[in-house]
Amino acid sequence: MTWPTHQTLQDTEDYVQFCLQSYSQEKTYRWVIELKENQQPIGDISVVSLDERVQAAELGWVFSRQWWGQGYLVI
Fold first, then answer.
1. Residue 10: which pLDDT band, with cuts at 50, 70 and 90?
2. For the segment 18-40, what is each residue's pLDDT rounded down to a tens digit?
C-alpha cells in the first residue's frame, strides 16, 4: 500500500500532531524506525489491532521509499 507523500510542511506537522495526540489513547503503540548509526528516522511501526483475548497484535509499518527492499523489516 502506498499513499502520497506530504506536499507541505503543514502536512508533516499535522501528521506529527496526530501521532502525538494518539499517545493519549490507552492502547496506542507507535515507534519511529531509525538508522542505528546516526538515528535518522526512516519509517515507523505501530500496533494497528490488538486482541488481548487471544494475546495477538497486528503490526503496521511504513518506510520512506528510499529504504524499501533493503532488509530493514524481514518477516
1. very high
2. 888 887 887 778 899 999 999 99
- 51 neighbors 57 (Cβ within 8 angstroms): yes
Residue 73 located in a structural domain: no
47 belongs to a structural domain: yes
Which residues lie below 8 Å from residue 72, measured CB to CB, with a gap of 6+?
Answer: 33, 42, 43, 63
Q: What is the pLDDT of residue 38?
A: 97
Residues 65, 5: Cα–Cα separation, whole Å: 10
- What total of structural domains would you count in the chain? 1
Please give, one letter per residue, the 3-state secondary structure of 29-51: CEEEEECCCCCCEEEEEEEEEEE
The label of the residue with cell 510542511 reads 9
Rounded Cα gap, residues 1 and 68, in angstroms: 12
